[in-house]
Design a protein that fits this description.
By secondary structure, the chain is of the alpha+beta class. Helix content is about 50%, strand content about 10%. The chain contains 19 helices and nine strands. The protein has helices at about 5-20, 25, 50-60, 85-95, 120-130, 135-160, 170-185, 200-210, 215-225, 225-230, 240-260, 265-270, 285-320, 320-335, 345, 350-360, 395-400, 420-425, 445-460; strands spanning about 70-75, 75-80, 165-170, 370, 375-380, 385, 390-395, 460-465, 490-495. The chain has a four-stranded mixed β-sheet.
Length: about 500
Amino acid sequence: MTTFHILVIIGILLYFLITKRYRYWTDRKVPQAKPKLFFGNVHNVRRTVHLGERFQELYNELKGKHPFGGIYFFFKPIALITDLELLKNVFVKDFQYFHDRGNYYNEKHDPISAHLFNLEGQKWRNLRNKISPTFTSGKMKMMYPTIVAAGEQLRDFMQEMARDEAEFELKDLLARFTTDVIGMCAFGIECNSMRDPEAEFRVMGRKIFQRSTGTLRNLLVNTSPRLARAVGVRVFERDVSDFFMKVVRETIKHRVENNVERHDFMNILIGMRSDNETKSEDGKLTFNEIAAQAFLFFLAGFDTSSTLLAFTLYELAMNQELQEKARQSIQEVLKRHDGQLTYEAIMEMHYMEKVMKETLRKYPPIVVHFRLAAKDYQVPDTDTVISAGTSVMVPVYAIHHDPEYFPDPERYDPERFTPEEEAKRHPYAWTPFGEGPRMCVGLRFGLMQARVGLILLLNGFRFTACKKTVYPVKLDPESVILTLDGGMWLKVEKLK
């Protein structure tokens, strides 16, 4: 038998093994979307639509046939939830079956990847209990003046740049604002990226989301995470990891040696610090845990909040009557507070809350949530079992654009979030931050910085479309976080 014949036989065997794998859901009598050889349902060599839109296609194809449908990441079977009662069970009611996300991290080779969002099991529970008190309303109030100071820098910078009127690419500018906020609140460092787009924190922030994720790496991480950890596959580039570890180490050293106290996230973490570098048995945080949480605070806070800011201004630019209504609601509340943007004042701006909720519906920064079945789970009212180790996906973007829950879903309408409208809707139709015990721990902070930025900008400027404005919306297919393909260009006019 020649080498050629051996290769042909191996190829045939592989083909049959792969096609057998792609019958995983069909064999369990679960409707599935037809996978493409090797790539499954989601990955392709040249991405032409955003993953959120791809999951929307799969959701629409599979909805109504079963509480979930079957799809594949490469050869890995995924349960795509299409029923909101099952979603509620996964997030809350049967959380004991779905307490982990199943995200890849590498504690040994890439310690900043072992943060609260990724950790599993008892490690996650222990850390969640330590971190949760960091985000109480009292702690948020402590950090509020820092956020307002950064917001005022953004407003002053815009006033200098706008003069009478000008065109801006707002996504990058707003990411520089949120980078400065997070830099100050998480690390106590003046990043100055508003004035200097090449400031180190901003450069590292861009690198996090621009990292190349090759097909081979994705295949290994998705199908054999243990092997990926064993061979040292990292989540983040080494220079990004080294930068944040160094910043945290230097910040802790400076504060401890000089007895520095600040009203920020880092101060709270240092207060829980153990003397041990990598292992703590006394309920305190190790250095690696502090570094990972500070990094997560940066990672989760700057890009998602700037995305929320940018899309809100984009939609208000396209809907001038809503922009004016938002501006008037801001001015009415400020008038009651003697023109001062106090913490109490922003909490009274209920129309702004509806505006932000509608933006998060139409443009959820994270388009899917993942959970992992810890043990076999009998899906209620069916004969189907989701086997232990199976990934479960909640297609947030798809559900937020489902006309059953949000009629005319492409229309931007903050009135969807009046108490009356919310009461009519299934409580799990809107989940930009997840729900249940693994809900985003820092959502209050993220919303607070976005709200401060929006209030200061809308109170000082008018935003309208310009020649470079992308309309209708075309999402950037290469971006993990939702963003417009071609940038977020708007005309900015300083109000008299």
